[in-house]
Amino acid sequence: MSENTEVSESCMDLRILRDEVNFIQSVSQFYNEEALSDIILIVNKDKYFAHKFVLAKSSDVFKAMLCEKNWSHGNKAEVELNETQECQQVFDKFLRYLYTAEVSISTSSAVGILCLADKYDVDSLKQLCVGYMSENSRSPKVKNALSWYPWAKALHFTELIKQCTRTIAWNFLEIITSSEWTSMDLEFLYDMLLSSELVIPNECAIWQALSKWLLHESHLEHLKDNAAKLLPLIRFPQMIVSQLYEIEQGELATNLETKHLLHELLSKAYRFRALCPSQVDLSISFNEPFYIPRDYTELTVDNVRMQNTLRFGIQVDVKMYKGPVPSENRDADWKITYRKQGEVWTLLLYCHETGLIHNEARVQPSIIVFNDADKVMQVYREPTCVITRGNTYNIQLSVEQPSVSRHMSVLLKPMPQ
User: Fold this and answer.
1) How far apart are the C-alpha atoms of 104 and 107, rounded to whole Å?
2) Residue of 184, 179, 177, 188 lying closest to 151 (CA atoms)
3) Among 203, 246, 309, 323, which residue's beta carbon has the most beta carbons within 10 A?
4) CATH number among 3.30.870.10, 3.30.710.10, 3.90.220.20, 2.60.40.10, domain 17-130
5) What is the model's pLDDT at position 67?
């Protein structure tokens, strides 16, 4: 037998054996143990007996601090760490993780642990924290989402930012009607008002909330600057004429610091109403976010009790206003057909002649799923679709949390070109 053959057969038998549990247990017994400790970490007034090997293997930041010559900490028996109060309170949990690969975490301690994991670049702990916080900021856990959003943004955790933003957007009515609304941060308002995913009765509700915020005594000193940043984010074209006229009579429309900007924005809304019905003939477009509807619950055309109603093959006739210009008159006829198989719902949309403009209807469908307390649990948005004469549009929705999903609302949002 050749030497190469022997090597090949030997490789076929090769296995890697691990004893991770005993390895972790053997290391964990040295957590904050003075025996064999070669460094003391001082956090505030607390001292932790640590081991350079454990710190360096777990964190490149600690490795640099303790091993590289250009760091003054390298040969010191004690190292004082400057931590924020949130981090001081959970430093023992963080350090224990480096020895045990497990962490005891709660909604009150999550921020401190995440900040320490980020500061010392312990990637595995960062991922565990982000996963925990993402799960515990899902709707309807609005309080956690509000608390964690600024931290997620400051530390650039995209997954957590996305989850907190979604929960806040889906529960935006609860937030703008809360007693804490007027104390919300300017940058937070800016981020949220940029979003097209806000679930809200109508755009006027956002306007009323923002007016209250702008005119609150704590913000009056910076009224002009705040208005310049936030007012353009209100989607005035999505209001009806009576709402726009009421705004013209309001305090911000007569205030010297805001009236010129507000009148300019209202003019754009009136221009939209005047020109949008003829936008195809005029070859103009209104596709900027300023002109696009959010998830207004007033645009709900049907509600379905998900667990009390069998919707297999059921058809319902619904009405929506015709075209993209908001109107109180709903004279466009639509038909929705429901089918259900397991936790997958199929909806077929059909637009009658009364809803067509130039032989087509342009809409963005949204389906909002609620729990027993009418809290939003899921929002499913289709891309903008064009439904032509005699054709149907197919939507498939997988229910993410069937055990708590009780009813869903179907929204049809008429869209401009």
Assistant:
1) 11
2) 188
3) 203
4) 3.30.710.10
5) 76
Instruction: From 172, 137, 141, 143, select the one nearest 157 (Cα to Cα).
Output: 137
375 phi and psi angles, rounded to 5 deg: -90, 140
What are 177-233's pLDDT values in tens digits?
999 999 999 999 999 999 999 999 999 999 999 999 999 999 999 999 999 999 999
Residue 326 preceded by cis peptide, ω within 30: no
Rounded Cα distance, 391 and 350, in Å: 7
- In which residue are the tokens 């804490």 written? 180
Boundaries of every domain in the chain: 17-130, 171-291, 295-414
Terminal-residue alpha carbon distance, the chain = 76
What is the side-by-side strand order in the sheet with 39-43?
46-50, 39-43, 78-81
Cβ neighbours of residue 272 closer than 8 Å, sequence gap 6 or more: 237, 286, 291, 325, 416
Distances (CA, A) of 43 to 48, 88, 115, 123, 394: 8, 7, 15, 22, 59
- The tokens 């028996």 sit on which residue? 77
Enumerate residues 6+ apart whose C-beta is below 8 A from 296: 200, 201, 202, 203, 238, 411, 413
HSE-up of 316 (CA within 13 Å, CB side)?
A: 13
Tell me what the pLDDT averaged over the chain comes to: 91
Q: Quick one: CATH architecture of 295-414? A: Sandwich (2.60)
Strands 39-43 and 78-81: parallel
Q: How far apart are the C-alpha atoms of 311 and 327, rounded to whole Å?
A: 30
For residue 204, the tally of other CB atoms under 10 A from its CB is 21
The fold for domain 171-291 equals: 1.25.40
